[in-house]
Structure formats: C-alpha cells, structure tokens
Amino acid sequence: MTDLELLAAFPATGEAGLVPNDWERTEAALGVTFPSAFMRFLDVFGGAKFDDFLRVYRAGADNLNADLLTRTQQARKTMATTRPHIQKLLAERGTETSDLVCWGGTDNADMCFLIPDEDHRKWAVLSVIGRGSEYDLFEGPVESYLLRILRRDLVSDVFPEDFPDEAPSYERHPHI
Question: pTM of the entire structure?
C-alpha cells in the first residue's frame, strides 16, 4: 500500500468521495505547478481535520480559513516578517518565503508548508510552530510526513505531545 492509501485507511467520519479542488486558479495565483502526488493528497484529504486539530486546506474552499490560496498568501506574509531563521533555512535551499505553499494548520496557529523545488520529487514539508522558533523539516511528500506523525514514527518539535491521539482518525469536509 502507498502512504496515501495507508493514511486514508485511518478511521474517518464525514462525507466520502473525492474533494473538489480549483487547481487551475490556485496554481496561477501562486505561480506554482503542484506535484501530482500533492494534488492526489488534496483530492483525498482537502478540508479534512485530523484528530480535531490539524486541518488540511482545500484549493478553492468557500471557507477562507480552509482555502489553500488564502492561507498561503497570509502565511507567506507572516513568515517573511517574523521568522528570520526560516528565511535562512529557505535561502540555503535556494528558495524564499514567497515560494512556500501552506497546505495545513492547527488550532494552535502552527503552519504546515510545502517547500517547492524545480524537481517535484524534491519538494519538502516544513511545519512551523505558531509561536516560537521550533520547526520540522521532512524531505518527502505530505502524505508520508503526515502518516509518520500520526503513527508516531516521527516525533514533531511543532505539534503538542497529545497529538496525535492514541487512535488517530480524521473527519472529512470535502465541501468546506
């Protein structure tokens, strides 16, 4: 099974089915072409909330608090003005805060990003704590990062000790 299939196998509630995403508008507005693996991830999990804590955004969500484009634009501004250590990390990778894509966030204001690369196989995941300097950097796709976090195979410096729950689950909200 793929990591996406393993992640989808966690107990779920809510509306089933593929998630409608507005890829064309979002890619044009952000000036990015998403890897197909990320698009598949959001087609399954866009709008979902894991353990009632970590929200995955959706491209084209009606709710601006869950819209990938809106959240990315807001988070880019935040990162550009408040996180010099992240700016340095990104510069070492040949990118900057204006390239980040915010794919999710938590009730604690933690932010989850994709760090783009010309080679789609080299996109990485960056999670940044809402208040403080802690971050996680994962070299791989979102679904692999999230699966490892939920299985507790990867200990996060960003998320609280009580996340995930003992028996992780998610609630689907494909039309949020």
Answer: 0.95
